Amino acid sequence: QVQLVESGGGLVQTGGSLRLSCQASGRTFSSYTMGWFRQAPGKERVFVAAISRTGGSSSYADSMKGRFTISRDFAKNTVYLQMNNLKPEDTAVYYCARGPGVLGAATFFRYNYDYWGQGTQVTVSS
Description:
This protein is mostly beta strands. The protein has strands at 4-7, 10-13, 18-24, 34-39, 45-51, 58-60, 68-73, 78-83, 92-98, 115-116, 120-125.
């Protein structure tokens, strides 16, 4: 059984930064891509970023490029999402999830992720 626990959300002003963490249980952490999604009130859950099994490659949604950075620490079984220059439209619940074995087109779609965390709220005030 895989468990994912997010933390690091909170309230921040426009232009501020937050770093989200996602701690994974289980011994298969390095065998899968890991991704972050977000869901704003009344909207669908959408892709934010994903990182490959080795951590050597990553993908981002267009609106996050240059502002968000995904990384992973294998010693800690943890995936991070560093978010800079935050905007009010970044307000959402952020979820981490375990993705496919290979980073590719499939990692953009939530139905290719099998385990999800409970989410952490990020609120950006204007």
